[in-house]
Amino acid sequence: MRAVLALAPGLHRAGGKDTQLTTALGVAAFAVTTALTLSVVGGLLGFVGREAQPQTAFQAEWSDIYVVLAWTAVVLLGVPLLTLGGAAARLGLARRDARLATLRLLGVTPREVVGLTLVETSGQGLVGAALGVLLYGLLLPLWALVPFQGSSFAVGELWVGGTVVLIVLLAVPLLAAVSGAVSLRRVVVSPLGVARRQRPKGMSVIRLVVALVGIGTFIVISTALGSLGAAAFVFLVGSLGLAFATLNVVGPWVLGLLARIQLRRASTPARLLAARRLLDDPRAAWRVVGGLGLAGFVAGALAIVPSLAAASTDDADQQLLLTDLSTGALLTLVIAFVLAAVSAGVAQAASVLDRRREYGLQHLAGVPAELLDEVRRREVLGPLLFVVVGSTATSVLMFAPWLGLTGVSSPGGMVMLAVCLTGGVLLVLGAVESTRPLLRSVLRDPVVRAD
Amino acid sequence: MDHAPITPTTTPRSTTPPPVSAPPATAGPAMTARGLAKRFGTTTALAGVDVDLDGGRSLAVMGPSGSGKSTLLHCLAGILVPDAGTVTLRGREVGTLGERERSLLRRRHYGFVFQFGQLLSELPAIENIALPSMLLGANRRQATELAAQWMHSLGLAGMEQRRPGELSGGQAQRVAVARALITGPAVVFADEPTGALDQATGAEVMRVLTETTRAAGAALVVVTHDATVAGWCDESIEMRDGTVVDRGVLR
To answer: What residues form the membrane-spanning segments (chain A) (predicted)?
Structure first.
């Protein structure tokens, strides 16, 4: 085992420029995930601190609500953060699987293959987490500019503390290693698992059932909230997290359904290829668009906020609460959309590198680069629009018993939703387009042997 | 000297599979190369190579690793631009066309069979074959029907919906041959087409490749280091250090 693990750095270097780029993307994704996670947790701790030691009468009276709202933001952002972290751990999967499958053919045991993966992904996770802590440190002064409860936070109030930093530095590499090891099953089961790619297994309709149960649980709990009292907030936030997570379960299944419809209607090479790719691996497509789907869910939930904020009140405290609610909602949305764009960009870049040989040979055979661009755009745009509208509608439906339909029936809520979703779609498309130079560089470097 | 560039045809060209025993559909020079030279840094890959290709004939380019045979194929196919020399297709200079024109040329006038990996893993066999035809403007139904005819003629009937990963190496290469020929190319380039196959399967693929290309009237260039593979071709050239050291007519 030790002899094989000692090969890890050499094997990694042997991957060349692409592996280095994939590693850099993975590290960057882990860094963004860590920095934003710490920022969100820092915000929560800031409100908890003010609740424990209120400096003003307003803080003494209202801090408990702020803590609940901060927890809600943590839950809403938790899943996109985990999604990006998971995507980072799976970066360059095809390339790494092929490398490890070759080792399996050479007689390396499944345990040793898992060991190699753990070393590689946890290493990336650790470097990413360390950079993320630095990035969080750099962002702190920025977060401290945002006013809440009538005054800005001091940097010290938003600092999560050494213990949390230590936990993050341990947890991120651990999660990266687990995610990487889980993705290895095919190689471990059979060294030929990746050498001979076969028809992907379909996804069970159970995914839909799980999602409906998750969403239903939230609706039931939120409806019963009034009779259960304040303690129900814990259940409410928990079930919100559950319902939110189930979107990740049902998302790929729904995209598979969409792909079948698109395939039947595909009349051009670009449409045909985009539909086939989506059908081939809806999970990969979800990793690209899922972030925005989850952001759409957040937007749907927060569409109520402009209506609340617009409600004029003579009570200065209530007015401040409503203003802060808008600020918090905006902040949560901005973070969710940034996460979505980073997820999409990282996943697309990894996909270009994984398909390097395929793209190169297609181009050599005369397939125009513009067609490859169109396929990549179509591959994302269709699912993106579908997911954004679907997840926003789900969110509005889920929150209807609790918040009513004010969010989508008021002009303010509608405008906020439209602006957020349009901006989000453009942001993700921009992230996809940003990988165009990478594709061009792949095509400029054809599979040519100078012999 | 000005040459009219090879321009794309305005209507999609696609060919039904010819019977493999049919005589060449066309004759005469399809492609000519004169004085081709190419360097990579300080390495001379080609140093003044001449090639003549006739429609319906096949040429094996042989030589050890580093002899320049793949570079020659890439220069002939418009993948690389030679540093010196000319490549003409049906009398028109194509060696120095711009990147975009060379892409169009490859799509419309050439077919390719690589060692492996040219089939798109997400597409079933029939759609892999139909794709080049769709790229030239055929609608999906027409292209799929044509692809089905090619599959039938190459002994692949019943495998239409199989993914490349579900085909054997020989079957995948026959799909690649059909894909290369469906648009009726002037020249088919094959780079080590049997490199990933056992001898028996390789021989079967070469039989299909040479007979089908000949029947379609296309010229065929096969890069190989294997004399058995070269034996399926009509002519051969042997390369060393970027130059042709031997030429032979095999049949």
So the answer is: 21-45, 65-89, 126-146, 158-184, 205-236, 242-263, 284-309, 329-353, 380-402, 414-432
